[in-house]
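Q: A reviewer asked whether we had any structural model of the full assembly, not just the individual parts. We don't, so I'm hoping you can provide one. Inputs are below.
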Amino acid sequence: MFESRARHAMGIVLALTAALGLSACGGSKSGEESAAESCVDTSGDTVKLGFLNSTSGAMAISEQTVRDSLVMAAEEINASGGILGKKIEPVLEDGASDPAIFAEKIEKLLTGDCVAAAFGGWTSASRKAMLPVVEAGNGLLFYPVQYEGLEASKNIYYTGATTNQQIIPAMDFLQSQGVKTLFLAGSDYVFPRTANKIIKQYAAELGIEIVGEEYVPLDDDDWTTQVAKIVAAKPDFVFNTINGSSNVGFIKAYYEQGLTAETTPIISVSIAEEEAPAMGKDVTGQYAAWNYFQSVPSPANETFIEAFQARYGADRPTSDPMEAAYASLYLYKALVEKADSFDVGEINAAADGVSFDAPEGTVTIDGDNHHIAKTGLIGQINADNQFDVVWSSEEPIEPDPFLEGYAWWDPSAQ
Amino acid sequence: MKNLLQTGQRWGRTWGPLLGIVVVAIALLVVAPAVLSPFRLNNLGKYVCWAIAGVGIGLAWGRGGMLVMGQGVFFGLGGYAMAMHLKLEAAMATGGPDAVPDFMVLYGDGTMPGWWEPFRSGTFTLFAVLVLPAIAATILGFAIFKRRVKGAYFAILTQALAVAFATLLVATIKQTGGFNGLNQFTQFFGYNLYDPVNKKMIYSIAAVLLVVCLVVVWQLYRSRFGELLVATRDAEERVRFLGHDPANIKLVAFVVAAVMASIGGAMFAPITGIVSPSDVDATASIFLIAGVALGGRSLLLGPALGALAVGFGRTFLSESFPDQWTYFLGLLFIVVILFFPSGLGSAWSQLSARLRPKETVR
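A: Here is a predicted structure for the entire assembly that you could use as a starting point for your response.
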């Protein structure tokens, strides 16, 4: 008896559930845009800004430095009167090194906390996860890390380098060194794959021969086989697009198999002041391509380093993404002050040509693609794990995320 | 008197779980949409996806004794199948019926692998979400259970599978988006994904699916199969001597769990707007297990409520303590596993069991 009743009941539950579920349906089809209402309130004497960085998980070690730098910039701006007279009220969130969490938290910042703008993200995965949310809510995101380009959103400002400000200058430097053969070593994910696609096409243009291309999964430390191929290929230079801790394994194998900075130098795009001392080997004489080094001689940089080390400790180095994050908050201040408004539309309308005397030099926003003009720098690691600048682009390079100004670039070629 | 008590107990056994499911259904489908902001409701939707996978884990682990440490694989099969369709839908909305996903143009040579082609169809995608994990789990389960692999070996094997799956995804950028995963969807079967009304609808679909999964396992637990599954968990050899093949019994539970994980993953894609290797790897798989362990793995509602609680706890703790939240979450797990090894859902019966001997002494 119970059995049959239970079966009836089950049917009733399912029917009810379906009815409840269906009653919630009746959404609108695509195309019927529902305009997002901004809930940002700047009528008081503060303005809320979201700082979204991973403070837990695999990326925490890198992203914490960006967080520190953002917090310091906010304190400085508040000490000198805030933005349009309003003090910054930072809302801190942890992206937990997980793109889905970044998507959740950016939505929380934009729709729950109603921040006027958000700052952060590191991996391209995190940025790509945030992009549709920021666009749907018509918010603002400042992304402070060099990346693989091929993107532009009206709701994102990219204050790190795109490829024509880091990868292409590195190739120009190699050509100036008379390099004829190049070996590509990278982690197996989007940035190295895209960078190497650009490198291969530009190398063909410059007459540099690519004598090998090897990838190892992210966070895999075993580079023994791949380094053996470098030894056999005897390239003039190695172009290193390896990310994170995998560099340690690469550098170890490289020195153990007898390669040196004199015979087969490496140029890296992810080893900076923070990473150089952590390689486990003396990497003096190796090169890196960035847009900022701690050694950059400028009054703005001296002030930045002094303030950072006073705030966080004299042993803390400063590096490119930290500087780009620091600059991003000041650029936001300059944007708001030029637009005389916290409104996204008005900020975007006023964006072109807004500049800031950053520690790396003067940076200027391109109003079309929301990237910034930056000077390309090549540094050589010295005995103190600092970089001596050995090459620099003549002037700040205009950002070109889609490489439209480079005739040799064919995005559909392999 | 005694008869009345027995009738009451029987009544409770039959209708208690049903009452629980009805309460869960009302809470998720009536109360939550009425009181939560669109953002919080969407968050809840994400936990519901984990809960759907959790219900399956409850069946396989709680009742079947198989510690499935690699459910991320099946979660990922469903998630990626759905994400591929959404990605194609987004591409086709702007680029016509032959458009390919943007990342294949950006990072590859602009050609799409042939196995993506059928996912242009929504019907095929729904079919794939159910059938792909079933096929994968059948092949895998057959190989594992016929060889009588169990216990820690089974757990390690499934865990290794999750690691391998995530590594494979990261390594195939041009086919699966690699480390970035699949994202930037615009619509869900024709409905604008960023319209609050549609988001509510997608949440409701996920919630209904969770209730359906609960009803399915409730029926399985009540069935002859459910009894056999528990018997296999507790004394596999005896079940074998009685003439049943424990491998087949376990296989069914494993396949049902895989399909449920896949359904959870498929709803995860439109709700979060992204599926990436970090949602399906070993850590994500352990996270799924953690919710089930917390809620009580062998109870009907324990796994689902546990998954919801862990999801909520993760959000709440990380918002309240952005710098220390991982320690709090870790501490919570240690406390639960130390003091309530069968989960918080069993806390009451455990406590009352401790009190009962006193009564019998009297």
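A: Points you may want to mention in the reply: Strands of chain B lie at 182-183, 187-188, 191-192, 274-275. Chain B touches chain A through 75 residues (CB under 8 Å).
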